[in-house]
Structure formats: structure tokens, C-alpha cells
Amino acid sequence: MMTDRKAGTPERRSFAKGSVIFREGDAGTEAYMLQQGTVRIFKTVAGKRVTIGRVWPFQVFGELSMIDDAPRMAGALADDDVTCLVLGKDAIRVMMEPAPPGLNSLILSLLSTIREMGKDLADARATLQEHGIET
Length: 135
What we know:
alpha+beta, four-stranded antiparallel beta sheet, 3 helices
């Protein structure tokens, strides 16, 4: 991993192809906006990595645990050499503060649903793979 930071600019990090950017279950202290490359989001089911999504340039990933303070629901793996802008937890919280009353509760409810759906998706894909069906 390489870090490049000039005063007053967001931190930029590069990860080599095959690098794990973060692991399922880790505490989330930062999110990433992908600038270059692709990232695979995966869960581990019965010791195997099961892909539950892909991230393309200009998409943000790793933000869930920073909003709801729960551990990372999945891992992130660099499918290519990737470059990301780093979004700190404080930056995400500052974005959330001016939200109208009730919106944060709605967002937390949606995140809970997304986490459960991610688990269900990984389990379903793992079952299909066990039966020789690739997803």
C-alpha cells in the first residue's frame, strides 16, 4: 500500500492487485472513493471467499461501518492495481450531522437491512457454488 498526501488535499492510497483493503469483521475507521481500478467486495462462507459486489471508479465503499459503528460486513480486495481517496470517519459524520430529524434513524434501518441481505446473498452464492453453479 502506498500513501500520497499533500497539505490540504484528501489522502490518496494505492493498493496492488490482490491486496486486501480491509477484512470482514474489522472496525471501520475510513471509507474509500475508488478513483482507478476495480474492487471486489466479498464475504467468507465456510472458509471460501464469496463475491457479493464490485466497486467501479467514483463509487464509495467501506462506508457502512463508519455510519452504524458495527464491524465491517464484508472484505474488500483489489481486483486490479487501485487508487482510492480516503474518507475518514469524521468526514462521514460531518456529512450526516445536518440531516433532518429522523433521517439518521432511517439510514441506520436501511443499513441493518443491507447487512442482512449481504449475509443472505453470500450464503446463497456459496450454496450455488457447492452445486457447481457459478454466479
